[in-house]
Specification:
CATH architecture of the largest domain: 3-Layer(aba) Sandwich
Distance between the termini: 51 Å
Shape: flat
Largest sheet: 9 strands, mixed
Strand content: 5-15%
CATH class of the largest domain: Alpha Beta
Strand order of the largest sheet: 1-13-2-3-12-11-10-5-6
Helix content: 40-55%
Structural class: alpha/beta
Number of strands: 13
Length: 429
Amino acid sequence: MNKYAKILLLTAVAVLFIVLIYFFGGSRKEQAYVSDNWEMTYDPSDKGPYGTYMLKELLDTAGLFGNFLEINKKLEEVLEDKPGVNDIYFFAGDENFLESESVEFLYNFILKGNTVFMSCHTFPAEFMDYLVLDPDSTLRTEPVTDSVQYFRFTHSALSSKRYTSAFINNNKRTETEWEYFNQTNFDLYDDDTIFALGSNTKGAWNFVKIKYGEGSIFLHSTPYLFTNISLMKRDGFEYAEKVLAHIPPGRIQWDRYNLTNHFWEDMQGDGGGDGSGGSEKRQSILQFILDHPPLVWSMILLLVGAILYGVFKGKRMQKIIPAAESKENTSLGYINTLSSLYLQENKHAKLIRLKERTFLNFIAEHYYIITKEVDDKFISKVAIKSQIEKEKIKEIFDIFRKLEKVQDVTDDELILLHQKIEYFYKKCR
């Protein structure tokens, strides 16, 4: 391939690359997030911003819960109650679509000593009918509208920490409605007891525990705090950890079936009960790649790399030129030689000054710390940068100061100074 053909080919590759950037980069700026699906799915398999995949991984690795189960059918068909185990019904979503049969089954499940954790904006009406005297006044409150909220726990060991949560939509902080419980109207039946576990910016409850029979019910009104985009922040992750710490250890059974309303599916007889919400749209491999920008860029780089490899590797290969040996730094050897000359002439004072200058030059070159006076501030900076104990560094400069004032320096004192400097050189970062 001659010179002009190579230039023409490289120009064509560059033009192709610019065209691909225009179509797959500039025209899809709105797809900045790895997953451009900003739908509130709350699905534990969804790694998008509003999925709960990170929460599922946290539950899997928290160490407080046993085998993790997923519920993909009606509760009365799959919810397990293993004797001697605290089985935990777990739900996080915008609305829980429990049907009446499932609600009754769930309360029998609680009465046997098991636990329910439910975080949603809209709780099942029939579920709340079993629990409170007036469900409408308990749940229908005026939400806080803001882009940021602060949350606290009521437990004395956790109450000092405030957790910040910002609502993010399309990679921007956005105002939204933050639900909470109306604590003044949260009237339970006589045999039940409520405990406030957490509150929001207004000091209103957003996390409560209700003792019901032999079991417990945990209600949480802010499911956004368990989404992937919330757990990506330090405050969000720590908050979710603390919420889970309130739940007694047991076996999690995550309900993903009731994230969607299956009423019409059941009426039409086409509900498979797998929680998938219908048949999955089939895609070709190419369409799948084009729908995911990271895969598109991987394919572009692969093609460009293959073309460039063909251009530059297609020519005759010449013999590999051996790498030139790097020049050896002989400055330390020079200093050692110079030191030996000073020792031979019994010029210990000059040797000490030489060593101190060399040591200070080493610090200046490696850590960019220059000083005219060795004080405590200078030593502290060197200790932080080198990760050597401050006392070790101070000992070196104390010896320098001591020996500068002595007329006759012994060989043992010089050896001690040398050992401490060598320790610094070997251990420093």
